[in-house]
Every structure is written in C-alpha cells, then in structure tokens.
Amino acid sequence: MFILFLYLYLIISLLGGVTVNKTKILEVKNISKNVKGKKILDDISFDLFANDICGFLGPNGSGKTTLIRILTGLIHPTKGNVVINGTDVNTSKRQALKHVGAIVESPIFFSYMTGKQNLINLARITSGVGERNVKDRVKEVLKIVGLENRGDDKVDSYSLGMKQRLGIAQALLGEPQFIILDEPSNGLDPVGMKELRELILALNRKNGITFLISSHLIKELEMVCKSWVMINKGKITWQGKDTELGSTNEDLEQKFIEMMTQ
Ligand SMILES: Nc1ncnc2c1ncn2[C@@H]1O[C@H](COP(=O)(O)OP(=O)(O)OP(=O)(O)O)[C@@H](O)[C@H]1O
Fold this sequence. Notes:
Layout: H1 2-21, E1 24-35, E2 38-49, E3 53-57, H2 64-71, E4 79-84, E5 87-88, H3 93-96, E6 100-103, H4 115-127, H5 131-144, H6 160-172, E7 178-182, H7 190-207, E8 210-215, H8 218-222, E9 227-232, E10 235-241, H9 250-260
Parallel strand pairs: 3-8, 3-9, 6-7, 7-8
Antiparallel strand pairs: 1-2, 1-4, 4-5, 9-10
The protein binds adenosine-5'-triphosphate.
Family: Belongs to the ABC transporter superfamily.
Protein name: ATP-binding cassette domain-containing protein
Organism: Metabacillus lacus
C-alpha cells in the first residue's frame, strides 16, 4: 500500500513539475487596433510559454509590427490586453517590460561611437545595471553575441549582421527572460542569418530565454521556431506547435500558402 502511495505521489509531483515549466510569459488577449478608421488588428489572442521560440509569421502589411509595438508598450491597443509575466503592459508598463528585451524594426546606434561605447551609454540609461557593473555587463553581452574582439571598433565599420548582433547585445543588457525580435534578419546575407540563428538557439538553450520572432520568411524561422502564430490582414489564421505539423517543412509552407489565399 505504502509503495502504491509513493508511486502516486511521484506521478503527481512529476505532473506538477511539468505544470511549473509551463509558465506563461506572454498573454495576448483579444487585441484589436484601429488606425484612422482602418482595422489593422482584429481580435488577436495567443499565449506564449517559458522557453518557447515562437515564429510570428505573416505577409507584408499583415500587422506584425503593429502588434509588436503594442506588446512593447510603444502604442496602445484599441481593445484588449497584453500581460507579460503576469503584469499588464497598459497599466504597469515599466514592471511588465522589466525583463523583456526587444528589437523593433532596426536597432539604432550612434555609428561614430564604438560598439562598447553604445552599449555602455544604453546600459546606463535603460538596463537598470548599477554603474559599478556596467562595464562588466557590457563585456559579458559582447562575448555572448561574439563581438568581444570588435567592441572597440566604431559601429560604422560593422556589417549588417554585426549591427544586428549588437542589437541583441543591447537587448541582453537587462538580463531578459523574454526577447521580442521584429524581422531580425531583414537584409542579412546567409552568413549573417546563420550566425543570428545560432545565437537565438544558444540563448534559448543555455540561458532559457523565450523568443517571439516576427518575419514574413518561413525559411528563416523554421530552423529555430518551436511554435507558430500566423496572421493575415490583422487576424490569426493558424497557431500551433511544430509537433502539430507533419515531419516535413512543406507542411508549414502549405499552411502559409493556404493562409495567403484565404
Ligand atoms: N500609423 C499608421 N497609420 C496608417 N496605417 C498604418 C499605420 N501603422 C500601420 N498601418 C497599416 O497597417 C497595416 C499593418 O502594418 P504593419 O507594419 O503592422 O505590418 P507588417 O506585417 O509588420 O508588415 P511588414 O512585414 O511589411 O513589415 C499596413 O497596411 C500598414 O500600412
């Protein structure tokens, strides 16, 4: 009898463990956005759980950047709520975004300064890293993104891929649990895309960082993403996990094509 109870206890504990890992990082609840009488987002809802890498896929003009601007508190939704780590972005923006790093559109740097100087200035203004720790943290993030040997060079000598990695270094300054990237590989060559992909996968695996990555390029996302939210004309057309797709990449492409022709 005791063994049976022990067995049941172990099963319940294990199930409990699974539930703990299912921490909700992001809740997008019935978001709509109207601009100048035009409905740009229409009742968008989805959740994102810890340790996921979610591909936010949609054709040009489908509303991806608008939603990301809402998630990062840059604009308000017309209706609905965004909750990050249990805190509403609309009512407590600072708290909600405390452990969120984001690159919305292209990261902006002063090109006449070095990568290191840019990061030091940003860390002082935005990251909440104490002055004594700023230089150490900057050194750390430059190493994580593979720019430790280029930190003393001016940003205008960087390739686009390096600028994008510097953008991720910037997003990492505040030790985020969740990173939002809007079209991160825009304009990158295959080498830059590969480096970015490897960086995202490493940050997810080693540091447990959750990602939401928007793009209109399936090929770019399919090698890193574990779940998907697809939108077209401001509405979700499909959302699900990799495991819900078949074993081939064509399944995802097929979903995207079906979505485009709806
Ligand atoms: N401030 C604005 N005023 C008017 N229209 C806007 C505004 N912001 C966005 N839109 C329109 O909303 C739609 C969605 O734009 P959004 O930039 O969110 O799409 P997207 O999916 O990010 O596109 P892309 O992949 O081309 O970056 C577009 O038709 C765009 O023209």
